[in-house]
Amino acid sequence: MALDTAFNIVRFNRFYHNDRAGLEMSLTSTYYSDIVDNKVYNNSFFHNGINAQDPIDHMNSGIGFGIYSGSHIIKYNAFKNNVLYKHRVPYGTYYVNLADQLFAGNWDGDALGNPQFVSASEVLGDPMNSGLPDLHIGSGSPCRDAGTYLTTITSSSGSGATFQVEDAGYFMDGWGIPGVDGDEIQIVGTLQKARITHVDYGTNTMTVNAALTWNEPPSSPP
To answer: For 46-93, how does the pLDDT look when each residue is reduced to its tens digit (9 = 90+)?
Structure first.
């Protein structure tokens, strides 16, 4: 997948057995947009960047970044709760600083240990079998509950159906697309769930279809 514009949400995808990076962010002087403020989360990456003709190329990776010419930038993109396994390197770069991106809650299986996908082989197998590879994580996977939250409500406590979060860019309200619902969200540590009916990205304010109550967890004693 080539992700070459801004403010996209990329989630719940499987990237596997690609010669190049499963997901690529790259720019040349002919491109018209910075690659900024994308949200890439809850994706699985397995055995990408397997091009034997140029094995150490930066795009022989799970996720690849490259600026080849021009003045556009690749910055402020968030990568959270992705699972990566069996790559030469998880992230490959060319004139892109990974410190300018946000990484949190990702599982690099080559460094942290096998994520225990249900069924994943480095041998491609039958490409007509849509069930292979099965990149769901097994019941004993170390990835379970190892991720992080996407964002937080900015007020320490409160209740209501409208509230401000640190970054609303992870969520959508259906965007006016017929048949597409807004995202369902849940307050961490509670059973409270609600569906988003409106997102104001300018103010990071969200409205949901039911009142929620939240409280900041108490600090640990010194």
So the answer is: 999 999 998 899 999 999 999 999 999 999 999 999 999 999 999 999
Instruction: Assess if residue 144 is contained within a domain.
Output: no
Phi, psi of 172 (to 5 degrees): -140, 155
Please tell me whether residue 117 adopts helix, strand or coil conformation.
strand
For residues 190-217, average pLDDT: 95
- Residue 66's domain comprises 9-137
The answer to whether the CB of 41 falls within 8 A of the CB of 69 is no
Q: Which residues contact 30 (CB under 8 A, 6 or more apart)?
A: 70
Q: Whole-angstrom Cα distance, residue 183 to residue 191?
A: 16
Q: Rounded to whole angstroms, how far apart are CA atoms 51 and 19? A: 5
Question: Model confidence at 218, in pLDDT bands (50, 70, 90)?
Answer: low
Rounded distance between C-alpha atoms, residue 53 and residue 146, angstroms: 36
Report the alpha-carbon distance of residue 15 to residue 217 in Å, rounded.
36
SS3 169: helix
For the chain, give the mean pLDDT: 95
Pair 107, 30 in one domain? yes
Contact 135, 117 (CB under 8 A): yes
The answer to the question of residue 73 being in a domain is yes
- For 120-124, the CB contacts below 8 A with 24+ separation are 120/16, 120/46, 120/47, 120/85, 120/86, 122/47, 122/86, 124/17
